[in-house]
Amino acid sequence: MASDEPQPPQYRGVSARSRSVDRSSIRIMFDRAADYDGDLVHLEIGEPDFDTPEHIVQAGAQAAEAGKTDYTANAGLLNLREAIARHGKLGADYNPATDIVVTNGGMEALYLAMLTVVDSGDEVIIPTPAWPSYQAQTKMVGGVPKTVPLSGGSFEIDLDTIEETISDDTSLVVLTRPSNPTGRIYDASKVEQIADLAEEHDAYLLVDEVYNTIVYDDESVAIADTIGKADHLLIVNSCSKRFAMTGWRVGWLAGPEDVISQATKLHENTTACASNVSQHAAIAALEGPKEPVRRMNEKYRERRDRVADRVDSLQGVSCPVPEGSFYAFLDMRDTGLSSEEISERLLLDHGVVTAPGSGFGDAGDGFVRISFANNINRVNEGLDRIEAFLNEVL
User: Fold this and answer.
1) The CATH number of the domain where 162 resides is what?
2) From CA 112, how far away is CA 274, in angstroms rounded?
3) Which parts of the chain sit beneath pLDDT 70?
């Protein structure tokens, strides 16, 4: 006999697209660490340990006090876009009114770029190891990630493999320069050749430049210095790492007017605009004194040098010397353990939190990424604990 009790509604469940996306291994380790009872050294998150410079904070506070708490234009404040054009390493050819959209961090800029130029089934070429959100966001827009391993232990671009992989089904090639997770700065001539390949196949080249002012051998690194403005070039950048403004959530996407107009329309229908207060802070960051950034970069260089020297002295581990960003990608394959096993043991047995290299693509298995965006005493302590782990397993 059928029950007279009301039946719960039947749901289709979550979408296949959402199920196809994995969580970042970086965030998984961050959450795992929250359950750890003891003194932890956090080397997993790319979070600058510096406060946002005071003049930037004051600009944000003054904007809030002046009532700048309403919506802005979807594309962002025009005077911020003008500041980005002047100081964002874009070159002189970008029109602030038509070629730049301000976003809620660099992550939204990347997502808007993919939503705008990648159709369902289109291929997105991602040299790996690479930041995991590239693959995740490709799946989120219905694209097909095509990972291409970087060359050997040097993690340089393999042009032959990219040329073999790119096709008329490719809509986008993604590069991070400097690289997250390896800290490498890809050779400019190779970047130029990839731009040419993308153009030949009617694809876009997207260059993620969020670390392009945190460099150790050049004053800065910018794709505009290599190929200038091009109809098939998209540039993502943000204030987050450069100015220690991760929580302010201000980024931008720059590119040809036809792409930016469509990206702005999508932005209008997702988040409307970036925070008005944060945009005023970003103007102060870009237009204001450069000394705070120089001091932060000096600290990053000190830590980079310390990490490189220390890793060079250890048995069973190596890494390319980071040329930019604040990451080192440690080759720990001599342990015979997977990346997940290494990170798990480092956390549970030694209290140091790292990001498993396999989370950056199959080419990263046996590696772990460490961030030296932490004060040098904690970085030293973390390296001591990694050395203790190596002494156990080798």
Assistant:
1) 3.40.640.10
2) 13
3) 1-11, 91-92
Burial class (CB in 10 A: 0-12, 13-18, 19+), 150: buried
Amino acid at 298: E
Q: Any idea of the CA torsion for 168, 172, 175, 181, to the nearest 10 degrees?
A: -110
CA-based torsion, 56, 280, 371, 33: positive or negative? positive
Tell whether 187 and 336 lie within a shared domain.
no
Cα–Cα distance, 360 to 180 (Å, whole number): 9
pLDDT for the residue 153: 77
Instruction: Kindly state whether residues 138 and 30 are assigned to the same domain.
Output: no
Between CA 42 and CA 370 the distance in angstroms is 9
Measure CA 87 to chain center: 20
Which CA distances in Å does 85 have to 81, 224, 233, 234? 6, 11, 15, 14
Chain centroid, CA 344 distance in Å: 23
In a domain, 121, yes or no: yes
The predicted pLDDT at position 11 comes to 63
Residue 145 has φ and ψ, to the nearest 5°, of -70, 135
Same-domain pairing of 76 and 211: yes
Range(s) of the domain holding residue 135: 55-287
Which of 253, 271, 287 is the last residue before a domain boundary? 287
Domains: count for the chain = 2
Domain membership of residue 10 (yes or no) is: no
Neighbouring residues of 35: CB distance < 8 A, sequence distance ≥ 6:
none
- Alpha-carbon span 79 to 96, nearest angstrom: 8
Q: Is the domain of 132 the same as that of 250?
A: yes
User: Is the pTM above the cut of 0.85?
Assistant: yes
Question: Are 146 and 126 spatial neighbours (Cβ–Cβ below 8 Å)?
Answer: yes
